[in-house]
Design goal:
The protein is an all-beta fold. It is about 0% helix and about 50% strand. The protein has no helices and 23 strands.
């Protein structure tokens, strides 16, 4: 047997028998034979050098696993999909390789509607449920920058009116000065008609012709910044009275403050609506 002689710090000679052998001290000179492929050098429970199998991530984890910015977690045999954080946003990419999609097999994503190619940045800005008969509601204190921060607002209203009347939309609490210009098409029990209205004090979501009694109603109102005029909001709506017909329309309104920030969105009726009538306001961020 071929023997190599290694001179240790205490000048003692230790006999090695194979390439990769490791000398150590334990009440005398000792030899740790080279480990097999895949083993790592560690310290045993006896506080001595030892070869052990390299440990991976155990399941379940019992502490946080921290991944630095811009480091991808890769999934799939071909590293087909990834998750990473770029310092600002979390990015889920199912198409690192191939054209696969992101699927959710059960449940859902609460409060975040899915946009095209990404999750839209939607916020639930307010909710209302009538506990008594009322005829006006404003979501106030909003301070929504419609030029630089928000792309769209949506007001959804559902309920019933106590008597014949109208349902109206309101932006920025403005109900005077003739700020609203719009047109709409109405289907009243199968009869189609169109109306153009200028310099109105509210927008007319449902006219009296569609609410000529105690009826159930539903309306959606979308609001966006005009883009061209710095103090103008564009809007469109679709609404229905379940017993009468539908109304679809849109137009623009001029902000009284002369800016692009909306502080309130609301609705009103010429007669009270029933207890339980509800509304929700949503905003989509840029």
């Amino acid at each position: 047997m071929v023997q190599d002689v290694v001179n240790l710090a205490d000048k003692a000679n230790t006999v090695m028998t194979s390439n990769g052998d490791i000398p150590y001290y334990n009440s005398g000179r000792q030899r740790l034979a080279i480990g097999v492929e895949g083993k790592v050098l560690t310290v045993s429970s006896s506080d001595l050098p030892a070869w052990e199998t390299a440990a991976g991530i155990s399941s379940p984890l019992t502490s946080n696993l921290v991944v630095n910015d811009n480091i991808n977690l890769l999934f799939g045999t071909g590293s087909d999909a990834s998750i990473d954080y770029n310092g600002t946003d979390m990015i889920i990419d199912p198409q690192v390789v191939g054209s696969g999609g992101l699927k959710i097999n059960a449940g859902g994503i609460t409060g975040i509607p899915v946009g095209i190619g990404q999750f839209a940045k939607c916020e639930h800005l307010g909710t209302y449920r009538a506990t008594s008969e009322e005829n006006s509601k404003d979501f106030t204190g909003l301070t929504l920058d419609m030029d630089d921060t928000y792309a769209k607002l949506k007001l959804i209203i559902s309920g019933a009116i106590t008597a014949s009347g109208t349902l109206n939309g309101i932006i920025d609490s403005r109900t005077s000065g003739g700020a609203y210009n719009f047109n709409y098409t109405m289907n009243d029990s199968g009869t189609i008609s169109g109306v153009i209205s200028t310099n109105q004090n509210t927008m007319l979501l449902l006219p009296a012709a569609l609410m000529d009694g105690a009826v159930i109603f539903y309306a959606e109102l979308d609001i966006v910044f005009s883009g061209y005029y710095s103090n103008v909001m564009n809007y469109q709506w679709r609404a229905l009275s379940t017993e009468e017909g539908t109304s679809r329309g849109g137009g623009h309104m001029t902000m009284s403050s002369g800016g692009d920030t909306i502080d309130a969105v609301g609705f009103s009726a010429s007669e009270n609506w029933e207890i339980g009538t509800q509304a929700d306001l949503y905003g989509w961020k840029l």
